[in-house]
Fold:
Amino acid sequence: MASGGGGGNTGASGGPGMGLSLGLGLGLSLGMGEATGEAEEAATAEAVGRLATTLWLRLRSWEAVLAAAQRLLVWEKPLHSLVTAAALNGLFCIIPRGATL
Structure:
């Protein structure tokens, strides 16, 4: 049965502005397309680096709070987690059902 297209890349192909693709859909390419891809990867890597630095600078003051919350959520200290869960449950039981904060 013949395939109507849309399958993987099963041969060599090339076109204007595109590199020569080889292999069975392995993403191997030769030629002009590599320079553009490398530039895009470098720009993406730079943007990710800036984002990571920005997040680190903003969240470093919250590190202790986030670590404490994580310890409660993963039940690292079961007694503390149990007391917190009971307190939150009690708080929600005390608040009238129709009240808004």
